[in-house]
Design a protein that fits this description.
By secondary structure, this protein is of the alpha/beta class. It is built from three helices and four strands; from the N terminus they run ββαβαβα. It has helices spanning 34-42, 62-78, 89-101, and strands spanning 11-17, 20-29, 49-60, 81-83. α1 crosses α2 and α2 (62-78) crosses α3 (89-101). It is globular and about 30 Å long. The N and C termini lie far apart (41 Å).
Length: 102
Amino acid sequence: MSVSEETSTAQVKARTEDGRLVLELAGAWQNHCAAAIVDGGIGAQRPTSVRLAMGGVSRWDSSLVLFVHEARRWCTAADANLNLEALPPEVRHLADQLAERI
């Protein structure tokens, strides 16, 4: 079975849910520029709360951790709350470790 092009690259789909911005991650999160994807996913929006969800992620590496880190930095600068509860514990733990060291 071949992997379709649609699910073989990192994707961010932004939607609003109950007054907060939800960034739905999908595809293979490997070897991507996290900062550009965060900026592209949020765009000109100025939410007070951002939630990351990754139900559609097929594979991930440190690119996903860097994305979470950049999302955290963006939210801090924008004074927005970042909700990571939908992420697997491993991703949250690695992102927390990165935040402590930078």
